[in-house]
Structure formats: C-alpha cells, structure tokens
Amino acid sequence: MRYPARQSGIVLVIALIVLVAMTLAGIGLMRAVDTNTAVAGNLAFRQSAVQAADVALKRSLDWLKANSASNAMNSNNGAGYYAAEGAAIPTGPDGEELFEQFDWDNFAVHVGTDPTTGNRLDYVVERQCSTSGSVDASNAHCAFTEITSNSATCAGCSHLVGGVPPNVGVAQYRVTVRVLGPRNTVSYVQSNQY
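The chain above was modelled as a monomer; its predicted structure follows.
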C-alpha cells in the first residue's frame, strides 16, 4: 500500500504573501481615490467661494454708488469703509497683505451666509489714497481712473496722481472679500472699483 507524499506547505505561504500584497494594493488604491476625491472637492469649494464673492462685490459696488457723493467717503467709518489704503488690512514688510490680522468679525460688512453652500461673506472697502480726507487735498495721493470721451487716448487707464485728479477722474477703491466656507476653508477675493 502506498502512502501519499507529505506536503511541505509552500503553496500556503505563497498564497498568503500574494493575499497580503493584494490587500496592500487595495489599500493604496483606496487612498488614491480618497485623495482624488478630496482634491476635486476642494476645487469645487474654491469655485463656489469665488462665485459667492461676486455677491459681496456687487453689494460693495451698490454701497459705493449710493455713498459716492457723500462726505462720509472722506473718513473711516469703522463699518467696512476706510478712506486710506492700508487703514484696514495691514501689510507685512514684504508688501504682502496680512488678511488674517484684520478683525473681520467687528470691522467688516457682513453680507450674509448662503444657505445652499454654507459660504459666509464679509467685505471691506479701502479708498486708494495715502491719507483720509478729501481726494482733492495736496497730501491725499489718490489713485484715479481717468474717464475720457476720447477712447483712443486713455479709456479706462489708471495712474497715481499726487492729490490732483485728472481732467475727469474717479477715485479708485479696493474691495476685499472674505469667504468662509465649509470645512473651515477661507478664501480672499480682491477687486478694484471706481
């Protein structure tokens, strides 16, 4: 009578090694998919924040139009408007704006929170003058946008004029919008308006 040959178990060891390798490959694939999903989600949040910022920019433009003839434009009102550049958002030694150091909760205009996206909108308007006061003052050094009837010479051009506006000029304003989004995302959008 013959007895079967004894198995040494090498196939079992190889099968376990292959299973471990497949498990590690599956985990790696899951992580890659999760990372791609997170990146796509972040891009969607960013796009949503930029679109939401348009609402705040529109509100700030409406406010500027409503108050443009007022003497209130010559001084800081502490409620989202500052008559001098850098009076609201501080600048670092390298000229970079330090948005995080501004007290957005107390000194910006709160536009509202979009219920569908969860984006909270705040804005600040800074007139592009070196000092507060009248734009006609000799020390105001305001940035103006020239409005001319001859579009060939200077349609929409802007330049710094030492306190003396051009023939027909409008002071420039920089609007900074902060968008607080879901997942603790923060986006800043700036626009120059006149």
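The beta strands are 81-82, 109-113, 120-127, 142-146, 158-161, 169-171, 173-180, 186-193.
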